[in-house]
Amino acid sequence: MPYEEAFMELKDVSVTYSGPLPGQLHHxxxxxxxxxxxxxxxxxxxxxxxxxxxxxxxxAGFQTYEGTITLQGQRITKPGKERGVVFQxxxxxxxxxxxxxxxxxxxxxxxxxxxxSSLTExxxxxxxxxxxxxxxxxxxxxxxxxxxxxxxxxxxxxxxLLMDEPFAALDEQTRETMQSELLEIKRKSGITxxxxxxxxxxxxxxxxxxxxxxxxxxxxxxDLALDLxxxxxxxxxxxxxYQKLIRSVLREEPPAHGESKPSNQILEPILASYP
Length: 275
Ligand SMILES: Nc1ncnc2c1ncn2[C@@H]1O[C@H](COP(=O)(O)OP(=O)(O)OP(=O)(O)O)[C@@H](O)[C@H]1O
Known about the structure:
The radius of gyration is 19 Å and the shape is globular. Helix 2 packs across helix 3. 33% of the residues lie in helices and 23% in strands. By secondary structure, it is α/β, with parallel strands linked by helices. It has a domain of 191 residues: 3-Layer(aba) Sandwich (Rossmann fold), CATH 3.40.50. The strands form two sheets. Strands 6-7-8-3-9-10 form a six-stranded mixed beta sheet, with helices on both faces. The chain has a four-stranded antiparallel beta sheet with strand order 2-1-4-5, with helices on one face. Bound molecules: adenosine-5'-triphosphate. The site of adenosine-5'-triphosphate (ATP) has 13 residues, from strand 2 and helix 1. Adenosine-5'-triphosphate (ATP) binds next to strand 2 and helix 1.
């Protein structure tokens, strides 16, 4: 379908809840404007309560919001199969096997059986679970459950993957393995990803672009395009410099060089000022 706008565009998106007192409003998301390019890997990073999940849920269609969000020119008002969602707690159906969990979306979308089977097989192979297709979720490790959950999201052939702290419950080593595998899946499929995390190092390993959110009200304090190769060395010095910059934004310190707000244009001199 041809479309002229950005791949995804958020215009004046805000979320407000009523506070405990009459007339009191709680601005969870301050009006936010954002363009997402096709194939981009964006991490939403920030402290607890800054609105990361709320923003992701708006894009997923789970949350009502003010403003407009469009994906490939289509306005988002409810969940849709073109947006695959991966949750921290896997959300697998325990009474279905891995294969049945993955095949569920294609089945509900009315795909014929043969196409469904080949798609399910392809997605299981992509996440390395082809030998575990007949297992029930209770026989899988946390990492395997998250792989199954990822395969289930991919089986709907989405144009964007929305992930809410998918690896937060995993041990450090499994988490690093999953991060590398996710990048490999991303490389093979070219899919656009929006990934919520609390972890600066996770964001720096995965993202092409990091949006640092701050709370009260939830807002984007830094929109940082990373000038790093796709395959990253976790010990690369440049990661540490980005890390220092992000930490200073999270501490709400005034940025170096007297700039009121860091932007991509002025990041190079700012980064250079971090030893
Ligand atoms: N249904 C609701 N009613 C009122 N306030 C809500 C509701 N849902 C979320 N909030 C508030 O919105 C704010 C943002 O919550 P959100 O879960 O999006 O933050 P988060 O950055 O994802 O946090 P975490 O990292 O802890 O998951 C919080 O202050 C939360 O209390």
